[in-house]
Amino acid sequence: MQLDWLLQPLLTQLNTGVLVLDAQYRVVFFNQFIARRAELDLARVQGNLLEDVFADLPIAWLKRKLDSVLHLQVPAFSSWEQRQYIVKLAHLRPLSSDSQYMAQNCSMLPLTAPDGVSRYICLLIEDATDAYVYQQQLQQSVMQLEHANRTDGLTGVYNRCYWQQQLGYEIQRAGRYQHPLSLLLFDLDKFKDLNDQYGHQGGDFVLIELSRLIDSLLRDTDLFGRYGGEEFGIILPDTGMTGALQVANRICDTVARHKMLYNQQTLKATISIGVASYFDHSVDELIQRADTALYCAKRQGRNRAVAYQPELEGYLKKVK
Amino acid sequence: MTELHFTDVQRDCLQELVNVAMGQASDKLARYLGTFVHLQVPSIALVEAALLSQHFSSRYQQQSATLVSLGFFGDQGLRGETIMLYQLANAGVIAQLLGYSDDAVSEAEMLTDISSVLTTTFLSGLAEQLENSFSYAAPRILSSRDQYFADKLAYTAEQWQLALQVDIRYQLTDYSFNCDMILLIPGEAVLRLRQTLDNILADF
Prior knowledge:
Chain A has helices at residues 7-13, 32-38, 42-45, 50-53, 59-72, 129-150, 160-177, 191-215, 241-257, 283-299, 311-319, and strands at residues 17-22, 27-30, 76-78, 104-112, 119-127, 181-188, 223-228, 231-237, 260-262, 265-267, 271-277, 305-307. Chain A is α+β, with helices and mostly antiparallel strands. By secondary structure, chain B is α+β, with helices and mostly antiparallel strands.
């Protein structure tokens, strides 16, 4: 059976772009897949250089690939994951893809004419826009999950697990580069009374409102996390004790002056802060020191910031 | 379970074909890269695919390694998958080798490029020796820096019965770099390969 007639209709209807170049990278042939998407007429551009036919090709990159195909007589490949597209072609999903051009997988194959001498290269271009779109959606979901995974659901600050992990990294960094580093641990004063008076929703409201307020007082590099219940921690990179104490006092004052409106009632809250500075400690040691200072701030009458000093340990023993 | 054993004669024959294919590949590469390329005579070993990851985990234990896979299909049921193993410390050398300046080429693209050049150049020579011809699937990176490569290799190897392990050392005038190539061949294709080897031997 004679099958030669098959070739033309197949090339016309093939859902893959077929582009053939000669050894000088002049366009010899392309099928309808490419003609329609690039709005080109083969008869008008046949024999022209590849880069003159298709606009904005990554030509240096492409020629390196084509050179290897010609000289080694082996195929070369390009994946949309590494280079989203080679030839600017329209795709059929203009609504669901954020890219104007078709994502492409491309195989570049060596061809030899029946004369056994003339070399050609065939580029097969497949539409990978679907895969590209799914990949974008997947990446977005992963980003959302990563965000959820490090965020405290109620207040929007970092959750304890992520925050403590970051404290570990910051301690390593401070140790390696001999940078200062300080830690604030704070606790809402008489939070139980607040809950009793306004209900747990009132308590939650105060936690959310104060988290937002305190966050607005911090630098981008500071790390604010919820340690548990009404206790929070703030990591202050590149900050020594003097600076940390200033920050702590500013937070304390701002919170004390801040009026919150809840169910037509004006609420006020105060916090107590323990401040500790890093000096070759482990994560646990640093948290322990800030906690000791926090405990002293509570003992000394609340609504204040107290810096950790070794003498506080003795104070702690006496009151116990 | 298919009996996948090779006789000494078959094994020697395969080694000889691999040598010839490797010689051709080094010649082509030298011309393409415009530098002297020396490919040492590769040592081949036929190993059970299941044992592969054990074998390589000791060699690549200390470094972060990358695996790049490339599938090939030939006539008469001959098919398989090649895996190239790289130590990522070599990435810079590979870039120089391919003539990449520090332009916008990603590490991933560089590794898939070098893999497809090295494997297809060798495989097309081997296909010729076997009086066959191969077509290739696009190379894929199986694992990169972050993943423990032995798990990935074990998982990939699980799907195959026999592995033809080919150690390649590429030595260039100005640089040297080593990588390992593994040819994974399914059981029925091993039988075809043996048949082909017997035919070649019978012609001598």
